[in-house]
């Protein structure tokens, strides 16, 4: 049973991070011609495109991507809770657990991205690749106020 929980948790966590990046890319004005950005868009389009017909974007915020991210996070929390405990939780604790998990995912994502970005600046300064360009577009808006 532990192996099943591990596999399901890994797949659902990967999906949450893919949809989280889908939300963050337009907010940081990332280059959508980047192959990594295109891979994220292709991986998440199965849920975002049908939602976009109903939910139009508001400025730079893609509401369809936000709703898809929240839906995936709630489903992930529900499935993992059901596998671990065996019962379905009430809606309010489920929503609070999903929001808490999403906030922790954002913090962990940015912690890892900034660590990798700093490490790359020491190992390979000035090297341009799709990964470093995407890392720069995600990390620079957060780091610029700290540099001032």
Average pLDDT taken over every residue: 94
Q: Name the helix and strand elements from N-terminus to C-terminus, one letter apiece.
A: HHHHH
- What is the terminal-to-terminal distance? 50 Å
What proportion of the residues form beta strands (DSSP E)?
A: under 5%
Residue share in helix: over 70%
User: Which class do the helix and strand fractions yield?
Assistant: mainly alpha
Taking all Cα atoms into account, the compactness measure Rg is 17 Å
Profile the largest sheet.
Answer: none
Number of strands: 0
Q: How large is the count of helical segments?
A: 5
What topology does this entry show?
Elements: H1 2-27, H2 35-52, H3 63-85, H4 91-123, H5 130-147
Helix pairs in contact: 1-2, 1-3, 2-3, 3-4, 4-5
Report on this model:
By secondary structure, the protein is mainly alpha-helical. The chain is 80% helix and 0% strand. The longest helix has 33 residues, at 91-123. It is globular. It starts with a helix and ends with a helix. The mean pLDDT is 94.
């Amino acid at each position: 049973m532990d192996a099943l929980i591990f596999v399901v948790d890994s797949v659902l966590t990967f999906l949450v991070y893919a949809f989280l990046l889908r939300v963050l890319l337009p907010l940081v004005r990332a280059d959508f011609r980047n192959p990594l950005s295109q891979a994220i868009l292709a991986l998440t389009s199965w849920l975002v495109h049908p939602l976009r017909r109903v939910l139009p974007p508001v400025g730079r915020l893609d509401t369809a991507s936000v709703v898809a991210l929240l839906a995936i996070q709630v489903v992930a929390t529900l499935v993992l809770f059901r596998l671990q405990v065996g019962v379905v939780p009430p809606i309010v604790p489920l929503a609070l657990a999903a929001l808490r998990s999403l906030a922790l995912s954002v913090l962990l994502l940015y912690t890892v991205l900034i660590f990798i970005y700093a490490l790359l600046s020491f190992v390979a300064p000035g090297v341009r690749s799709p990964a470093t360009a995407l890392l720069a577009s995600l990390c620079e808006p957060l780091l610029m106020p700290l540099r001032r």
